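Interim report, section 4.2 (structural modelling).
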Amino acid sequence: MNDFAKKLFQDSKLAKETTPVVVSSRIRLARNLADFKFVKYACKGDLHAVAERCEKILSSCSIFTNNTILNMGDLLDYEKLALVERHLCSQEFIMENNESKLFFTDDHLTSIMINEEDHLRMQVFRPDLNFKTMFDKINAIDDHVSENLNLAFDNRYGFLTACPTNVGTGMRASVMLHLPALVITKQIGNLILAVQKLGFVVRGLFGEGSEAQGNFFQISNQQTLGFAEVDILSRLTQIIRSIIEYELNAREIVKKERIIWLYDNIGRALGILRGCYCLTSIDAINCISLMMLAVDLGYLPNTLRGDLHQMMMKIQNSHMQVLENRVLNGGERDIKRAELLREFFATVPNLKFD
Amino acid sequence: MEKCQFCGKPATVHMTQVINNKTTVIRMCNECASKHGLFDKEGLPFAMLSGLGEALFSGMKQNLSANGLICSKCGCTPMSFKETGRLGCPHCYKDLKLLIDGIIESSQKGTIHKGKYSREGAMAATMNATGSFTDTSAKKSPRRLSTKERLNELQEMLDAAVKAEQYEEAARLRDEIKNLKGSEGVS
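Predicted structure of the assembly:
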């Protein structure tokens, strides 16, 4: 394994400590330096100066001592994409320019993009719904940054951002949820509409809003101006708590009314994972989603939960290429994915249905 | 079958956006959707303001008639914003105020910042164990640099600009330093 692969595959706390229903949560703050054009309009020299300044200030922030700083221009395409798969940076970030840098901590719980759409995009993650801890952490980093850099701030508009849809708090909070039972019972459509009406955005984990892809949904605030950070976070927390309750109720209903269907689907999925020789990413994620449900319902040991999340990362296209240290074409990826899954699921015990 | 609003091919992506109880539906083919950043995991549907602006912000059109606006610092105009979906610099919030206020009114919860460092100081909040927040309202404001610090900063920027052979930027910085020294009587 090369150095990059080691950084990427080091034990992620996020995967290890994940909980049922809530897969992970994130808070992101967008900040810009007052004296420079926004990234899209800035010249190379400006971007370079922004990167240097930000790097200097961030390096002096205690959370980033002895951690990783990557110059995005130095990375291969699939290495960049693997960082996106890990959610350490955004798709937009890796397409933009060569003056961008990425900071992240060994536990993968904090990352900072320099020169994304805004000069600074700072984010913290957690495997649960504890927004207080996350907010304290990101706020401390933001305090350090705003004490040491001249940030673009206006008394009326708040923190100024390249897109007015981020202005104000510059904060986006999101939660990744695993909602298989709401999908099975076909309640998910109504839920998405209800959440949207409350001013929050729902998207799929791998692409937009598709129910077919592993039953993962990300919910985040749409508006950033007009309320305080804490208000956004407590509203989101409330909404997520209700959704968790709906999902858990739906699981009870499925167990009561469609138990044979449930056993059949989970049993077949494990069969596929143990016996596959060529598996697409979508099929794999759908099967793993059912294994996660099996863990939550007690059909597989609890200790597997973290491993399943690690597996889900590992079988993504760019992760496999980092692991193999070369470019893999579509067919090769499906074969490699099947190999990784077969190996892992051979060690997984048999299902214990009630 | 519905057609893509942008290129007329069959639409496969249907996006429903609800802002302040107003529902807008946009239909797109896969290609146009990805072009507008709809599949960007990090961004939100809004990031694709580019080109979708009109469809999304139909209520904003009157303001767009203020097409003569231009940012005196970076040259950004309502047109370039429509193309890229991004503003040019912090100063745009002053010079393109008309455009920006329209967008903010149709997309945001309010028009005045109430978060960190705001006058209302709804900051330094803490959340109790059950997850609801309490507000300790610490009043703060972002640090304003002293003239001397600001001069040092500008000088550093100037050096960087010269090093990067950004002479236009360097000239701008040189003028700014001159102005600042003049206004503060610093020699």
